[in-house]
Amino acid sequence: MEEMLSYDSCFVTISLEDQDFCKIMRCNDSFLTTFGYENRNEILSENINVIIPNIIGDHDEFVRRYI
To answer: Given pLDDT bands bounded at 50, 70 and 90, which one contains residue 32?
Structure first.
């Protein structure tokens, strides 16, 4: 678990609640830097699909299968 929270690792938490499903709720500074965001307000409450390439598919459906 400690490795996940290190500065070098990107960390993001998404919501599993129906009204906010797959929306980004928290992220660390490394995530912001890696994906080119200057502050959290730019990405918080956005669907995680904004950072996942379409070639991977619909992330929402992927998450629904595994929860």
So the answer is: very high
3-state secondary structure string, the chain? CHHHHCCCCCCEEECCCHHHCCEEEEECHHHHHHHCCCCHHHCCCCEHHHHCCHHHCCHHHHHHHHC
- The dihedral region occupied by 22, where left means phi > 0, alpha psi between -120 and 50, and beta the remainder, is left
pTM: 0.78
Return the ∠ at Cα 32 (arms to 47 and 64), rounded to 5°. Answer: 25
Structural domains of the chain, ranges and CATH numbers in brackets: 2-66 (3.30.450.20)
